[in-house]
């Protein structure tokens, strides 16, 4: 077939017109994978009409209707470098990583997972060895700790460079000064790093040990014994009540898998006659960390350790590296190039005399301080300080920094991807609306429902308790009442009863926690006081529904595996036997229950679920779809409730088919679903319920602040489209002035093509798209869709799976190159949080899984405002200033060394002795430089009041090649002034040039710190005077180090000389000349071109 892709290939080859060029073109195409991509397009889409339908990405193209569809593959391919360019620009790194991963996988072959037969209470009967039931969150073990930590450090160019430089000092011909000059700073940096990693690793070990040492009760032939969590084996019986056993039974279970919503297995007991065979499903399982609502449990262990669902679904979190660290790594590479260039210049000016290559290497060592080794340790200590400040901030209590390496990322965010339920909303449901088709009840008319329930149950009770004569009068008022009134009353009765029965809620009596199972029923029958009762369920929606039925008079008072009891307004107990339960799943979007009324023996099948699932199940009606839309627009979560009465014969037939389907091993889910669907036909529609999920505190002002800060917010939720859209409006994620484009559901490439064209015409409107449509768009038009979506002020993705959430994060990172932040509160948000550049977890009602997996943990969504605007800003600004100042500190001393060598006929002789070099980077200047972590350009209140200031941070202007070059020029100027000034003013006392220049250097550095600081802190003043005092003391006690070059030169410091007025005024003059012009320039800049924050503070 002559597809457009092949035409493109042939046309391009024809235009080159040279056979050799044609061959090279085809070879390049093969190497880049473009031909494979063309054939993939041909196979994926056979509809030729798309070839003539352009997806245009510009307004001009759309107006002119140019047919440039064939350029679509190139639009995507052009985003990636190909061929030799790809290899040079990072492809080699990718190839090395792939090869190492392949070797690791070869060495660490995973055992094939298989289905298993587990004998109850007999771990020794297991056919194969299963993993130990131990939690391990440690990164290293005793053998891999040192190699692992060293690898993480030396993968940074900075540390690797200094390792090479330090090792070169073992070569006599290259040795300059003392070994400790190079090894002491490197050893200090590595010691600090190893110590920090060791502390973190020890904390992880302690947490793991605490979890693995938890005691559980295990049932054995000898009775109950206590075992540690790590000693639990497959086949063990874990109990929470005293019992003995003698049983010959086993469980056949499917192989370990990722799906947490399904389980297939069978239970077989062989010591009974006949043998017992029971099917096991997800309802018969308890996953790790499950909370038991009430009662007691005996369970057999099926999976342990790495084979548990929770561990298999947890991806190994990547080691996150901040953008600032990557930028500094690039700058150190630029410094290295400058170092090489300077050394080559010196050797060239020397005239390449003698062993010039040796001199070249010696110059590389002499100027090695251009790249400051203290940079990493200063930044790491700064990050630790930022983390401490965040956790000590009283305005955001409970905030925890779990990843201390990326606090600066909080100040560089462009995209915020947030969950909805529990993050923007409280996950606290309140029943708001009941709709019966002809009449609707809201919060202000619930008393009418209550009166209907009281009347209906009083009549039912009087009919059941009285004789035939007394039952007649109770019917007469009903018959004389209007027909509509009677109809509404009976429908309310049926609807409330259905809501009270169709759920998975369990009432728990907190004050009765220690009562044994036998006496629990008796005591519950006697005392139904509300203060003792609490409801527990997997879904807060169900709890809200049951709490509402209690408020209108029908109360759930007890529930076990086989029955549930309701209390009527008159205090009478209604017992219903639970025959079957069909739990809610994300695929079915509904749950059902079959119950038998104890008093009448009637069997009823109740079902509730989402309108999309229930609309085809219930009988024909003309109001359901419209009312669901109305409720969704109010921000309510809707559930459709229906019922179906069954005869005994119908139920027995269903039960036999259902049990048979549950026992099948192959395609069990499909067979079970088919049997259940046979019941789900022509069900009677009872009512439509609306439940509201309340917004978190201060969500609206927080989102407004983030939007003003230039952060684009995407809401990723598993909820349905209408509810997600309504929450987006009510939370002001989408402002009132903005239009909303709801992306039409698409299933084919052609539909996606047309819908994207329609969406492209819209301007400044928020996008709402479902997960299914998103999949189709990303399959065919990934680049085009992301380009359009990124132009939107807000995006809402509904019906998203956890995997899709993480995929969207990676798409934004790949296509935009901007920093992303993900925030969520549940286990389904973990993958998104781990994929983002910065993950924030909220400790919510869905547990701590998201909080523990995140880089930062907060207690409320509103805290994110201060976390980003204040702490993110300060961390980035401070680290940028700190990093550049540390580089300036190395550049200035290297400039002085270059001037010194030039004066001495380009000799590769060190200006300062080893101790002075070590002291210069540590005790003489470390404290003032590190005090920059306390600096701030604006007050926290101002940063929160004017979030627009945050926009400047995302542009990266605080640390760029421009600011870096400014600091390089400052360093060259000051280094030249200090060295030439010392040579000029001290010509007669030239032997004292080391003391003179070094003193001026220290004073200059202290003054430069003062020049850089924007807001003074008392610790900064202390650091300045402490460093100055240390230097003055060393002048007196370490004078042998202040000679020129090596000690053999015989030039030592004369203490009497440095106390003369001449020494003091000349040192002061040099210092003033080096610093005063910079102070003047700073004053003029702030006066004529002030930064945005200074305008606000003034």
TrEMBL record:
<dbReference type="GO" id="GO:0005886">
    <property type="term" value="C:plasma membrane"/>
</dbReference>
<feature type="binding site">
    <location>
        <position position="584"/>
    </location>
    <ligand>
        <name>ATP</name>
    </ligand>
</feature>
<dbReference type="GO" id="GO:0005802">
    <property type="term" value="C:trans-Golgi network"/>
</dbReference>
<dbReference type="Pfam" id="PF16209">
    <property type="entry name" value="PhoLip_ATPase_N"/>
</dbReference>
<feature type="transmembrane region" description="Helical">
    <location>
        <begin position="334"/>
        <end position="354"/>
    </location>
</feature>
<feature type="transmembrane region" description="Helical">
    <location>
        <begin position="990"/>
        <end position="1011"/>
    </location>
</feature>
<feature type="binding site">
    <location>
        <position position="421"/>
    </location>
    <ligand>
        <name>Mg(2+)</name>
    </ligand>
</feature>
<keyword id="KW-0479">Metal-binding</keyword>
<keyword id="KW-1278">Translocase</keyword>
<dbReference type="InterPro" id="IPR044492">
    <property type="entry name" value="P_typ_ATPase_HD_dom"/>
</dbReference>
<feature type="binding site">
    <location>
        <position position="829"/>
    </location>
    <ligand>
        <name>Mg(2+)</name>
    </ligand>
</feature>
<dbReference type="GO" id="GO:0045332">
    <property type="term" value="P:phospholipid translocation"/>
</dbReference>
<feature type="binding site">
    <location>
        <position position="805"/>
    </location>
    <ligand>
        <name>ATP</name>
    </ligand>
</feature>
<feature type="binding site">
    <location>
        <position position="799"/>
    </location>
    <ligand>
        <name>ATP</name>
    </ligand>
</feature>
<feature type="transmembrane region" description="Helical">
    <location>
        <begin position="914"/>
        <end position="934"/>
    </location>
</feature>
<dbReference type="InterPro" id="IPR032630">
    <property type="entry name" value="P_typ_ATPase_c"/>
</dbReference>
<dbReference type="InterPro" id="IPR006539">
    <property type="entry name" value="P-type_ATPase_IV"/>
</dbReference>
<feature type="region of interest" description="Disordered">
    <location>
        <begin position="460"/>
        <end position="487"/>
    </location>
</feature>
<feature type="binding site">
    <location>
        <position position="719"/>
    </location>
    <ligand>
        <name>ATP</name>
    </ligand>
</feature>
<feature type="binding site">
    <location>
        <position position="829"/>
    </location>
    <ligand>
        <name>ATP</name>
    </ligand>
</feature>
<feature type="binding site">
    <location>
        <position position="637"/>
    </location>
    <ligand>
        <name>ATP</name>
    </ligand>
</feature>
<keyword id="KW-0460">Magnesium</keyword>
<feature type="transmembrane region" description="Helical">
    <location>
        <begin position="1018"/>
        <end position="1037"/>
    </location>
</feature>
<dbReference type="GO" id="GO:0005524">
    <property type="term" value="F:ATP binding"/>
</dbReference>
<feature type="binding site">
    <location>
        <position position="542"/>
    </location>
    <ligand>
        <name>ATP</name>
    </ligand>
</feature>
<dbReference type="GO" id="GO:0000287">
    <property type="term" value="F:magnesium ion binding"/>
</dbReference>
<keyword id="KW-0812">Transmembrane</keyword>
<feature type="transmembrane region" description="Helical">
    <location>
        <begin position="12"/>
        <end position="31"/>
    </location>
</feature>
<dbReference type="InterPro" id="IPR001757">
    <property type="entry name" value="P_typ_ATPase"/>
</dbReference>
<dbReference type="GO" id="GO:0016887">
    <property type="term" value="F:ATP hydrolysis activity"/>
</dbReference>
<dbReference type="Pfam" id="PF16212">
    <property type="entry name" value="PhoLip_ATPase_C"/>
</dbReference>
<keyword id="KW-0813">Transport</keyword>
<feature type="binding site">
    <location>
        <position position="825"/>
    </location>
    <ligand>
        <name>Mg(2+)</name>
    </ligand>
</feature>
<dbReference type="GO" id="GO:0005768">
    <property type="term" value="C:endosome"/>
</dbReference>
<feature type="domain" description="P-type ATPase C-terminal">
    <location>
        <begin position="852"/>
        <end position="1090"/>
    </location>
</feature>
<dbReference type="Pfam" id="PF00702">
    <property type="entry name" value="Hydrolase"/>
</dbReference>
<dbReference type="InterPro" id="IPR018303">
    <property type="entry name" value="ATPase_P-typ_P_site"/>
</dbReference>
<keyword id="KW-0472">Membrane</keyword>
<dbReference type="InterPro" id="IPR032631">
    <property type="entry name" value="P-type_ATPase_N"/>
</dbReference>
<dbReference type="InterPro" id="IPR036412">
    <property type="entry name" value="HAD-like_sf"/>
</dbReference>
<protein>
    <recommendedName>
        <fullName>Phospholipid-transporting ATPase</fullName>
        <ecNumber>7.6.2.1</ecNumber>
    </recommendedName>
</protein>
<dbReference type="GO" id="GO:0006897">
    <property type="term" value="P:endocytosis"/>
</dbReference>
